[in-house]
Amino acid sequence: MTQRNLYFVFPEMNINSGGHIAQMKFMSIAQEHFLGICDVQPVTYRKKEANILYLDEVIRDISATNNIYAIHWGPDIPQLLTKLNKFNVVYFAHSTGYKFKIPSKVPIINVSKHSQAYWGRFAPNNLIFYLPNEISDKYQQHSGERSIDVLVQKRKSSKYLIEELVPALNPHCNLTLIDYWVEDLATIFNQTKVYLYDSTEYWVQARASEGFGLPPLEAMACGCTIFSSINDALSDYLDPSFNCHKLRVYSKEYDVQRILSAVENWQSNTNNLDIVNNYRLPLIKQRFDHIFKEINLFFDHQKSYPANIPPIIQNKPFSLEKVIKKIKSFF
User: What are the tens digits of pLDDT across the range 230-273?
Assistant: First the structure.
């Protein structure tokens, strides 16, 4: 088996985005795991940055064809696939719905079962894996007073949550609305009883999917009671009425009633730790090692064999006009 250098391809290095931060974590795992075995580095492609490799320069090197290039930034995937057509490419799938196609020679690593199912349908000839995001050990439940009854983050939240539910809850509880980037959410989660998250509207309007949905899982790890939408990848781990409650149900009054009841009856709960532990670093490392061993073997295989499995043929959409025209032709 050939051991290849692994380059994580980023638009730029400083982006406050969940997918970007998750990809940085995957790179850190690889750097630690493959230390002394192969080179693992970040590469940017939108602009040159100090002490960071630049993609156009890297692929000019004569040995570039033996590297693996890990790409992930959804809007740029088509142009990156074109640029890296002659190279070994791995696609890390976070959000779905961008409607591009992935050549069968490109393995797809999915951070959620939702993304895995999507690519299982739309890339049936590709090598596909599941590698969930890591929940940092700093997200742990601590004892102590919880002064925040209800916590809401404005980012990605629906108009209903911000403009209707928050004003309805405000007079009846201690509600905190965060409308800025927070570096240490773990501390805030450990001061919170109930966490509200509703991202469906955001992703529907973006015509993409919730790629993983870290905040509800991180809040769960810190002992919060979760009220959330269950769209897309959130359904990987959210189980309404068992480890969470579904938000945005039937009427605002119904939501308010259930949330205030959860605040009043909140108590420390460690029942969800088994779910959270599936996303801790030891298990992620095991999966990472196994996946990249198989990917290296797959790229070895490509040197000797061409892709020859035929694509799945989709039936053409039903056309009533064509049926009517066909019937008329008989008369």
Answer: 999 999 999 999 999 999 999 999 999 999 999 999 988 888 88
User: How far apart (Å, rounded) are the C-alpha atoms in residues 52 and 62?
Assistant: 19
Rounded-to-integer distance, Cα 258 and Cα 131, Å: 34
Burial of 321 (0-12, 13-18, 19+ CB in 10 A): exposed
What are residue 108's phi and psi, to 5 degrees?
Answer: -120, 120
* SS3 (DSSP) at 115: helix
Core vs surface per residue 262-289: b (16+ CB within 10 A) or e:
bbeebeeeeebeebbeebbbeebeeebe
Residues 6+ positions from 96 with CB-CB distance below 8 Å: 114, 115, 118, 119, 208, 209, 211, 232
Structure tokens, 186: 């773990």
Please, which pLDDT band fits residue 319 given cuts at 50, 70 and 90?
low
What is the reported pTM?
0.90
Res 269: pLDDT: 81
